[in-house]
């Protein structure tokens, strides 16, 4: 596929036959993360110019779906999990366990994963951060965020997400 190596070539630019052949020849892995955790990470990395998390969230909501950064855009709108049959869906929080499995399936040594952070430490940290950040939001913002990420929440089992409540 000539256009395959072109920078920023989107899957939608290929015709149906090319897409089917291309997708059938790859192992497709989708990494997903609680959308609220993605927002927190984006804020902490300084991706917005807002002084507070609440004002950052308002910027995201005001930008809407079409003007959103890929850092916090709903995954369903980016990766089309209903149209592409992914071979693996790996959820943040189970990364260490799932990556070991993927590496073994690919015939690579799975014992080389970095030991620095365990998934339970990451989950505990994000749970604490989520509680703090969620308390800064108004009831209206919470409702709007749940609506903004409704398809991600429906497509993936983020049962402990603050946006699922």
TrEMBL record:
EC number assigned by the record: 2.8.2.-
Membrane spanning stretches: none
Single Gene Ontology BP annotation: dermatan sulfate proteoglycan metabolic process
GO function term, MF aspect, one: sulfotransferase activity
Record keywords: Carbohydrate metabolism, Glycoprotein, Golgi apparatus, Membrane, Signal-anchor, Transferase, Transmembrane, Transmembrane helix
A single cellular component GO annotation: Golgi membrane
InterPro entries reported in the protein's UniProt record: Carb_sulfotrans_8-10, Sulfotransferase
Record localization: Golgi apparatus membrane
Topological category with respect to the lipid bilayer: Single-pass type II membrane protein
Pfam family, one: Sulfotransfer_2
Family, as annotated: Belongs to the sulfotransferase 2 family.
Protein name: Carbohydrate sulfotransferase
Native source organism of the sequence: Cettia cetti
Upper classification of the organism: Eukaryota, Metazoa, Chordata, Craniata, Vertebrata
Underlying gene: Chst8_2
């Amino acid at each position: 596929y000539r256009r395959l190596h072109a920078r920023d070539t989107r899957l939608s630019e290929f015709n149906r036959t090319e897409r089917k052949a291309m997708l059938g020849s790859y192992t497709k892995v989708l990494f997903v993360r609680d959308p609220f955790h993605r927002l927190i990470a984006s804020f902490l990395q300084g991706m917005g110019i807002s002084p507070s998390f609440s004002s950052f969230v308002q910027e995201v909501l005001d930008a809407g779906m079409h003007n959103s950064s890929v850092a916090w855009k709903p995954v369903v709108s980016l990766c089309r999990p209903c149209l592409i049959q992914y071979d693996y869906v790996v959820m943040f929080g189970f990364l260490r366990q799932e990556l070991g499995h993927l590496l073994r399936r690919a015939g690579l040594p799975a014992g080389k994963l970095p030991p620095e952070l365990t998934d339970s430490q990451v989950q505990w940290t994000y749970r604490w951060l989520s509680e703090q950040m969620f308390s800064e939001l108004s009831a209206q913002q919470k409702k709007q965020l749940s609506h903004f990420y409704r398809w991600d929440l429906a497509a993936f089992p983020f049962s402990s997400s603050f946006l699922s409540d």
